[in-house]
Amino acid sequence: MGWIGFAIRITKVDQGVYVIEISGLRKTYRSRTGSVVAVDGVDLSVGEGEVYGVLGRSGAGKSTLLRCVNMLERPDAGTVRVGDVELTGLTGKRLRTARHGIGMIHQHFALLSSRTVAGNVAFALEVTGTPRAERKARVAELLELVGLTERAGAYPAQLSGGQKQRVGIARALAARPQVLLSDEATSALDPETTESILRLLLDLNRRLGLTILLITHEMTVVKRICRSVALMRDGRFAESGTVAELLRRPGSELASGLFPLGGPAGLDGATVVDVTVSGADADAPIIAELARRFDTDVRILGGAVETLATTRAGRWRLALPGTPQDNTGALEFLRSRGAEVEVAS
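Now predict its structure.
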């Protein structure tokens, strides 16, 4: 099959930002019994230093998408560019060399059981031909970075799940990649360990300027560290955008999952509205001001104020006495204060 219409590239934009760009990605798996389209027409752009999450259920195509970025899976159509290098035109040693700029961490760690912690990290440097003395110094640097200096001589069987994933992260960073791909990196971990790994990834993102593209089926992961997110279903993106944009998008499925409001969508004799604010407005006393200004009883049916990755957001479901027409002034006041207002009933 010919190569058409698809491109992934990591390149500079006007602000000096490196991005991953995916256009029209398609990947089909074929067997004797038929074929399955794993990824079907996906477009995606990720800026330098961004943490971008792809969320979806098992079988949605997330892993295939991720593996196409570093050419572990070749797409059916298109080209892949990292900087000025076209990966789809490379094979063998040239492709392996080009992959050094893209690190990857795995769900089940993929560690070598016969090697120590230090040996597992060093292996990634051996592959790149790094001299022994330089390898030793870099391994020590990486183990300190992920908090495993004292476990350098331990073997994988002697480590907890969280420690194993830290080794995987250190190994992925060995060649100083620009981009880190994360394939369900926390799904095999308990909630407390998941939180520690997410804190580490966010710290690495900030300290090293890493661009992170991660896939997950866990909404908690997206809430904790992602600036942008896409919902993947049946090989396609059903919805995508920054978290801040999605929270303000009426009817957003992702927003409902990230920040469920709760409370009834309708009440007799009342106007039920969903109100979303972000940034500094999230902590402003907007509901109290509304009640005072319009001398009305405002019922809070659900919602809260939370910090989602780098976005401070407040979402509430409110009940105002009377019809929407009766509350025209109140709704306009909320909008004038920067709120996204959606009338539920």
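The domain at 261-343 is CATH 3.30.70.260 (Alpha-Beta Plaits).
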